[in-house]
Structures are given as structure tokens and as C-alpha cells.
Amino acid sequence: MFKRHPETLIPLIKELESYIAVRNKRNYLVSTSNIAWQIDHSLKVFNLVSETLVNSNPGLHSSQFNKWRLLCFTLGYFPRNKVKAPKFVRPPEIILIEDLELQLQAAYQNIENIKSAKKYAHFKHFIFGVLHKKRTIRFLQIHTTHHLKIIRDILK
């Protein structure tokens, strides 16, 4: 079973960080986007979700059964090319290394912030519904791993 502690997110962020050096690599057989796009998108999602979780009101948490969440979270896998990233987490045309570094700093800080979030702090996902703290950590693990796999495949 996956550990759902904020510390488990650190190696994923470190791995994203390690790919900045090869950010311009691209492989159209894998993805139309380059590695910088994958890193930037992953960090945007990570930071936005983390901040939403930390700023939520745990007293307003309510969750319902969701078959897609059950399936994806149990498998620990998101299929490729099934969902398009919402506009607010899509990277800009030009991705600056400084922007990636700022987002990385924010991600590390957000991991610390998640540690102090209440058990029923939550985030509402457009497909998976309301995710409490542990489910949000699981979502961040699966989402970041999904994009790390794409990066690794681009580099093959």
C-alpha cells in the first residue's frame, strides 16, 4: 500500500528537478510536448492542489463514492491521452528556468504546509470529486508519477 505522508512527495519533486537540465528534449512518438512542459505542468498542478488543500475548510468536507477515483487510485495509474489539462494548469509557450525553480521552491514549501493540514482538509477534483488530505496526497503521487513516466519515455 502506498504511504500517504507528505514526505513521500519529496523524491518525486526531486526527480522532476533533476530533469531541468534536459528540459528541451522532445520525442513526438511519446508526446507533442517537451520535458519542460511536463515539469511545468506537474509543478503547477502540485502547487495549486496543495494550496487549495491547505486553505480549505475541513468542516465543509463531504465525499461521495467515485468509481473513477476508486479505479485509478487503486491501480496507482492514470491512462495517457484520456484527459486534457485544464487551461489554468497548462504551461506558457515559453517556459523559463527561473519559473521552474520558483515553482520547485513553492512545491517544497507546500509539502511542509501539507504536513500541518487537518485530516479533512480537502481539494475538489473535476473527475475524482472531493479528496481529503490522504487522498490528495495519493492524487499528487499518481499525477506526478504519471508525468515522470512520460519524461522517462521521452528520454528513451
Automatic annotation (TrEMBL):
User: Cross-referenced InterPro entries, in alphabetical order?
Assistant: DinB/YfiT-like
Name it: DUF1569 domain-containing protein
